[in-house]
Structure formats: C-alpha cells, structure tokens
Design brief:
alpha/beta, 8 helices
C-alpha cells in the first residue's frame, strides 16, 4: 500500500521514508561501500508532469541520506512513454520495457559502481532494460535496490524479505531461470 500511495496518491514523502530504510540496509553492507553514484529508474517527462515527481528519485533521496553518494538524474533517461504496466502480465511487460531508455553520457559512468534504484521490481523487465542501457558505459558495475512483489526474488538474491540488493549479473541469471529468453543483458565491457 505504501508504494501505491507514493505513486498514485501524491505522497512523495513515503518515497524518502522507504529510501531511508533501504539506505540503512545498504550502509550496513560491505558490498555497497564503494558505490559511486545512485541512479533512480527514470520516468518519461509526460509521467513526471502527471505525477509532479519521480517516485524512484524520492527513494534515492532517502538512500542518499545514509550512503552519501551523488544522485544522477539526467544521464539515463526514458525516451518512450507507455501506459502503466500494472495490469500487464509477464510477456507484455518485457515487450513494453525494451528500448525505452537511453544513456546520454556513458563516459560519466566509465569504471564506476552504480546503484540502480527502482520502487517495485515485478518481472525485472524495467530494471533489465535500464541495465542494458547502462552497460554501454565501459567497465561499469551495477548493483540494484528495489522493492519486490515477489518474495522469492528478494529472498533468493539477497535474503531481504521486502526488497533486494543484487549485482546485475546475479539478477540476470536469476531472471533467466525464472523467465527464459527474457534476460539478455550484455556483459559489461572491459577496456
């Protein structure tokens, strides 16, 4: 209900609150001590106009209070507007998420460790599409934090019952087992 209120009931303060909870978990983990930037999953400018804010940016602000890393909001952008995916099943979600993000300045993320933040990870389609685009930056490491409707995803990847942190490669492998053919992320390039 909190995510629903954050997204659809104009309660952005919920995002900051949830981000602070997530940030405490991240700050306590040695795996996330070397993050360089926080990148919230972008929303299309039309959706931002409808909602007046990006809920994942609010979550990122809460996380930032605990890990003190810069938030980058204008490098990974959403280029295609689509209706909400809330009523869609797996396959249409994956189809909807393909090719909708663009990385504008890959050089800014070269050799960096990114924390990609999403509000809810249902099928992994959105986070995977973002990850594919972020992988255009040379030698990037991508870690993920997001809520999950599927308790199995959270427990399997990181042991968190309400959300999860994971290296993108771990997510890719898990999603490939869960929905074969859907997770085809490129391996980060090395120089």
């Amino acid at each position: 209900h909190l995510i629903h209120s954050l997204k659809y009931k104009h309660q952005p303060e919920i995002g900051i609150f949830l981000g602070e909870i997530m940030g405490k978990e991240l700050a306590a983990s040695p795996l996330y001590q070397n993050i360089d930037y926080i990148i919230p999953v972008p929303i299309h400018h039309k959706r931002r106009k409808e909602r007046s804010y990006n809920q994942t940016e609010k979550i990122a602000i809460g996380i930032q209070k605990h890990i003190q890393k810069p938030i980058i909001k204008n490098n990974l952008i959403r280029t295609i507007y689509r209706e909400s995916q809330t009523t869609l099943t797996n396959r249409p979600r994956w189809k909807n998420a393909r090719g909708i993000y663009k990385l504008l300045r890959p050089e800014q993320l070269k050799n960096k460790h990114i924390l990609l933040v999403d509000d809810v990870i249902t099928t992994g389609a959105t986070i995977t599409s973002c990850g594919k685009e972020l992988c255009k930056a040379n030698n990037i490491k991508i870690s993920i934090y997001g809520g999950s409707h599927d308790e199995k995803i959270g427990v399997r990847l990181a042991g968190f019952p309400k959300g999860f942190c994971a290296d993108l490669n771990a997510l890719q492998k898990f999603l490939a087992r869960r929905a074969p053919g859907n997770s085809d992320l490129a391996t980060p390039r090395k120089e």
